[in-house]
Amino acid sequence: MAQELIIGLTEHRTFGYLYQAFLIEKKVSFYSIIKLIKPHDLNDLTLSSQEQELVRLTDRYSDENLVKKFSKKKESSKFFQQMDQGLFQEHISPYIDRYMRQISLLLMEQNTRLFFKQAKYANLYEEDQIKVPEQYSRATFCFDRTAEGTRYSLEIKHNNKPLNILHKNLTIVTSQPCSFVLQNQLYLFQHISAKKLVPFMEKDIIFIPKAVEEKYFQTFVLNMIKTYPVRASGFSIEECSGNKKALLSLEPNLQLEAVFLPKFNYGDTEYLANSKSSVSVTLEKEQDNYTFKKYMRDHSWEGQLLHLLQELGLQEKDGIYFPKGADLLDGTDRLFELLKWLNKHKETLLEAGFELQQNQYEKRYSTESQDLQVEIKTKEDWFDIYAKVRFGDYEIPFIKLKRNILNGIREFELPNGEVAILPKEWFAEYEDLLPFVKQEGHAMQLQKHHYQLLKKRVKGIDKSFFQRLDKISESASEPVAVPANIQAKLRTYQEEGFSWMYRLYEHQFGGCLADDMGLGKTLQTLTLLLKLKRMKRQIIVPEQTESDKQLAIFNNEQPPKEETQAASLIVMPTSLVHNWENEIKKFTPSLKVYKHVGIQRKKTLNLKGLISYYDIILTTYGTVRNDHELLREHEFFYLILDESQNIKNSGSKTYQTITKLKAKHRLVLTGTPIENSLSDLWSQINFLNKGLLGNQAYFKREFITPIEKKNDPDKQAKLQTLIRPFVLRRKKEDVARDLPPLTEQIRYCGMSKEQQRFYDKEKSIIRNNILQNIEQEGIQKSAIVILQGLTKLRQLANHPSMLNDDEQAESGKFDEIFRSLSNLMAEKHKVLIFSSFVKHLDLLKEKIEAQKWKYSLLTGQTSKREEVIKSFQEDPENRIFLISLKAGGVGLNLTSADYVFIIDPWWNPAAENQAINRAHRIGQDKKVFVYRFITEGSIEEKIQLLKERKSSLAEKFINSNNPFQAITQKEIMNLLS
């Protein structure tokens, strides 16, 4: 027999009547129910797609699915027994109603039959079938107002025939919208709720007394007219089409994000664009007459306006609109984009009929255009920046926005009380500029050394000016001619360094020459001073030998009438004074030099006369601290700081006194501009070009914290942009092609006061002892005594504690060695340190260990030589190798090192050369620098002078079994003078 799928309307024990899907089979006079159909049965049945959908819909509200959806415990029996009525009314009943309605609509569209199905019976009969209509039934609510009151009734029609439900036995199938079964006929309505029909099952008319009529009209009747078909007598219902307007409102959504809300007003009713309501009703009462005005939404008109918004670049999401891409922005950025869009399309929107609003904001935001105009004029030492902003009709000096831009505040209040949102671009372009400007009325002044900050903002200014400034740090720029009387051949990179300093001089900028140790910073600086040398006032110095008499002329000298170039003051560590003096004599002998150092310096001299006469005055950091009151009274041509890391601490007395000295130009020389922190750099740059990096608080906030703690690449780039023209740093490997295979230099080191006193005392004793021995034994038999005495003086020249084990003793050479070593460690170079004295190496070892630097040590006592050498060669963190000259002068390959320190040079150059060749040999891919440290005024310096004047002297000591056979008593006494 044929089987058929039908829908049965059956009563559920809890939820009332529900649709269920059954499979039935035709018997002789009835239908037998085969089974209740569930979705898992569909694969075994041949059903249409609509029939399959009916099965799925009926399963939505099966007991199992309702328990899963609405019960936390997932227990079926207890759920239905203990079900909360509030949960049923608010959630479960509407849920079931929704799917029941969908099934009713499907039944209207197809031929699936509907039956009443009693819960306990498995058979169906023809008289159980419910007829499903092909069209909706219509209900009209009728109001008849009379002098006594208002009568309210219901008129239902199906197929244009009246349908009476009074005292009829209805079966409610769905509530919203309503559907019911009456006499085996299903009736469906499009909109009416079952609650509105139920009262008319008991009575045909509901009477509203006159006393409550007005309130009844304002609420119930108004809502009925708005929602349902209404027929009225005794009052008017007018259908209106005019009095409509469109609004575009800027306001925050629930997430406080700025959005556009299109709204449409009909009479007193306002609709959002995505509102589903189509009708609005207002009530007007004039004397005793009521008039309802019913407005039907004009969806075509609204659609045209919403389409216009999309054509103008807005996109829609859930009824809200915003410019494309604005949904990816947050906060002020998003609000700014919406305001900018409004400004751009304001006229078009107004012409289309939109009224613009801002709702739910405490402030009113300006939608006017914003225009920034900048004009820059160059002066001798600064730029005048004239900048103004136009907000609509208001013109505001740009300087008034300084606080906003520096503090990241994008809201700026205009004179009319509206708030303008400043473009983010202004912050990006000007936040690094404004900290450095000085306000002059409505204009701004910027010092010329900040020109890098203006380069990208040039308007109305000669770009060639910046092009000239850019050439300061460009090695490819046209070189400056080296002075012809320089007594040296400058290498290419040295000529570039000299040219760079000269271009800084031309533009009156200070500069930091930060070349690696050994690249000739002194020579480059002297070349500059020689290039800039001007004629001095001629002063006749009497032929007197005593320094007091030679300088006495300056005590009474009158200031020259014509303007002369002042001397350049060069400040350095005490240990470098002798070296500078020698370099000046060697490379620039035409520059007159005066040393303002030592306890014997003449503080009572007419310093102005000295400054007028000499080209260069050498002094020390300690001297500047002590004589700052004297020095600060005068202006120098150049103020040059060697080893300028001495002023890295801006809170030190050294920094405070140095920065108060006056000079037309400034330079600093250092191999390590940054030793510990970026604050070291600030101190030196602020000395050179005051204010270039802002004050210390700004520099710490803007650069030190972001760079040192967060490694911020943008801040690094910004800082490099600021300092790039004023700092020149070349590493040894950068200029390797321009260097000779080996660079040698002598470092002269002054003694400490106690060291000098001890040395002079011992020298006198040794001298007398040697003289007495020579007189008694002759010079040939006195060799041992002489060597012992000279060795003792060598040890004192190195460090007094090598003789007396005084831990508190000080040594000028030791301090200079360690200062040079510190520079190389900061630059991550590797260095070999050779000494004839193991005791000297031990002193250095103690100091190195205190700094926690890795090192290797090789002496005659070292047993595991290969391990020590391997550690130095292969460990990149091991950068120091302490070597005794006897133990390590030969047989070692130490090509990882590029610096060699000979810390106690003596007669034998061959031994020193063998030591140097430990690094300077085949396989070395780096240029090697050699430093010989010689204590000034000691036996070491005397030997060095003899070696230069009498080259055969070394041979005498090397090739003779008794070297003193070839040296005279006078020469020995000169060594001890």
Would you mind describing this structure in some detail?
36% of the residues lie in helices and 25% in strands. The strands form 10 sheets. The protein has a 7-stranded parallel sheet with strand order 33-34-32-35-36-31-37. By secondary structure, it is α/β, with parallel strands linked by helices. The longest helix has 25 residues, at 85-109. It contains 33 helices and 43 strands. It folds into 6 domains: 3-130, no CATH class; 138-234, no CATH class; 241-279 and 294-358, no CATH class; 370-461, no CATH class; 492-738, 3-Layer(aba) Sandwich (Rossmann fold), CATH 3.40.50.10810; 743-975, P-loop containing nucleotide triphosphate hydrolases (Rossmann fold, 3-Layer(aba) Sandwich).
Uncertain spans: 537-550, 556-562, 950-965
| Helical residues, percent | 25-40%
Structural class: alpha/beta
Distance between the termini: 140 Å
Oligomer: single chain
Q: Round the mean pLDDT to the nearest integer and report it.
A: 85
CATH architecture of the largest domain: 3-Layer(aba) Sandwich
Could you give a short account of the major beta sheet? 7 strands, parallel
Shape: elongated
The CATH superfamily title of the largest domain: Tandem AAA-ATPase domain
Strand percentage: 15-25%
Helix segment tally: 33
Main sheet: strand order? 33-34-32-35-36-31-37
- The CATH top-level class label of the largest domain: Alpha Beta
**What is the CATH topology classification name of the largest domain?**
Rossmann fold
Total individual domains: 6
Radius of gyration from CA coordinates: 51 Å
Query: How many beta-strand elements?
Result: 43
